[in-house]
Amino acid sequence: MRRTSARFTLTGAAAASAVAIAVIGATTASGSTTAPSEPAAAAAAAPVGFGAGTTGGAGGATVTVTDATAFKTAVQSSAAQIVRVNGTIALSSMTKVASNKTIVGVGTAGKITGSGLNVANANNVIIQNLSFSGSNDDAINVQYSTKVWIDHNSITGAKDGAVDIKRASTNITVSWNRTYGQDKNMLLGHSDDNSGEDTGKLKVTYDHNWFDGTNQRNPRVRFGNPVHVLNNYFSNIGSYGVASTENAGVLVEANYFENTDDTYHLGEGDSGPGSLVARNNHLVNSTAGQTGGSVASIPYSYTAESASSVKASVTAGAGVGKI
Question: Nearest to residue 278, comparing CAs of 232, 317, 215?
């Protein structure tokens, strides 16, 4: 087992460039506003990996919200909905998200501050193109949920995790997000004592994310096997990149590590080791980490980008305003 240091370095650089794929139209609903000249929110292509098949609110009504009251009404509705966020939504506590929802920011205007989103006991949820800052808890928490796609968000300053996934959640893709100003970044599996619920679950793909000066948990994994850490850019990581613990199986594949002393390892804190396989990663001022054991086969088809090109792709395309 490995016990980490408390180093935490905050760095980052702005990214630029955009890829438009499909456009979601807007309709007016009670408690929401829209303007004829307002730019429509864009939807990225479907998720790769374990979250494939997540459709969110597709087929339901589209509403545009500009304040917390309308936002909560929309995301907690029992109906399928596409919820377009045009403005800053100030939350005082974690806000539950119901099933069959797409929550998508309009351009670069969609912001969540003060607290975060709780995807709990839900199915088929997309959270996309939103800026999260200053949560008093997590920015995004996922528990007892399946088919979730967290994509093209920018996350900073959450008191706890940027994206925490736990309690038997599974079939999730976390893609093209930029996280910065975070100590605890992305936790997968909350407790060493939860093997009964989590074994056979917690199957997550982390694809093309920018871990920008985040200190630890990029991700830290318990029990999930396989977990796929694919084509991410790790820059100026403070304590460690990826940790595989408690019998997890993690494939760390074709990532770009830069200025990262501890790229990946087995065990963390009081948590026992898992298994980790590293394949075709690109290291710049970084050292190959600890591997061991075997990881279950990835059960979906994919094409890995060459690791040496990942930095350019991710810095150009990750975060808000890039879809």
Answer: 232
To the query of whether residue 217 is one of the catalytic residues in this protein, the response is yes
Q: What span, in angstroms and rounded, lies between the C-alpha atoms of 56 and 192?
A: 31
Separation between Cα atoms, residue 119 and residue 43, nearest integer Å = 20
Among candidate residues 167, 217, 220, 222, the one labeled active-site is: 217
Token pair for 42 = 């864009």
Token couple for 203: 């199957």
Q: pTM of the prediction?
A: 0.89
In which residue ranges of the chain is pLDDT below 50? Answer: 1, 3-42
Please give the full DSSP string across 88-141, using - where no structure is assigned.
EEE-SS-EEE-SSEEEEEEEEEEEEESS-EEEES-EEEEEES-EEE--SS-SEE
Q: Which of 94, 129, 97, 125 is nearest to 24 (CA)?
A: 129
Instruction: Give the residue from 268, 210, 280 showing the smallest Cα distance to 243.
Output: 268
